[in-house]
Every structure is written in structure tokens, then in C-alpha cells.
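Anyone have C-alpha cells for VOC family protein? Sequence:
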Amino acid sequence: MASLLNPYLSFDGDARQALEFYKDVFGGELRLNTFGEFGQPGGDHADRIMHGMLESPSGLTLMGADMPPGTEYSPGNTFAVSLSGDTESELRGYWDKLSAGGSVSVPLERQMWGDVFGMCTDRFGIPWMVNINQPGD
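Reply: yep, here.
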């Protein structure tokens, strides 16, 4: 799989409705995963979207999620640029360059869903998410 670059949008509890709306606009396949499916079954966030991905027939990709528990939703922190794929050396190289001189909010390491993932803000204030797909166990 080639590396993929796309917007990643953040929502305040209405990610499901927003992503379903974008599916109506662009068409395609929408996959949604909740916080409850990934180890947070109780509380207010269990049914909220931890990760959603829309892939349109024309090749557009849009990702989005509700803000994680404990993260404040405010204008300006509602998007990131997402880099994903399975070429680990390429994506780690991007990560090293993007995070240099910036700040790391989630270190690039294996996450509960099995992939290697990290979040950083580059030296120009642009937020990035890097996800390195791992082969199934």
C-alpha cells in the first residue's frame, strides 16, 4: 500500500453524524469504530467515534473522530493532516522530520489497535498524525 495523505477532522461528540453526512455528499464506504470497541466501554465516550474513515469511489479519503476523553474541543484543534501506510521506513522518516523542532503529543509507538501511531505538531504549528499499518497477527 502506498502512503496516504489526507485530512483528519475532530468533532465534539457528533463525528458519527458528520461522517455520515460526508458519506452522503461524496459516496463510498464509511467505517466507524467507537471508543468502546477499543477498551473504553464505560462512560460518556463508549459510543463516540474513536476513528472513522470514508473512502469515496473517486479516490477521496477523509478521516475523523470525536475528541478523546480529557481533550478540550476548541476551534483551531479540529483538524490534523494524517499520513498512513505500511512502508515503515518511509513513514518513520517523515515522522522524524515532521517532529524535529516541533512537539510530540503522542510518541510514535504501538497502540491498542495494533498499529504504530504518533501525533506531533511541526515547527510551523501544523498538527500531524502518522499511522504505520502493522500486518495482522
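The domain at 4-132 is CATH 3.10.180.10 (2,3-Dihydroxybiphenyl 1,2-Dioxygenase; domain 1).
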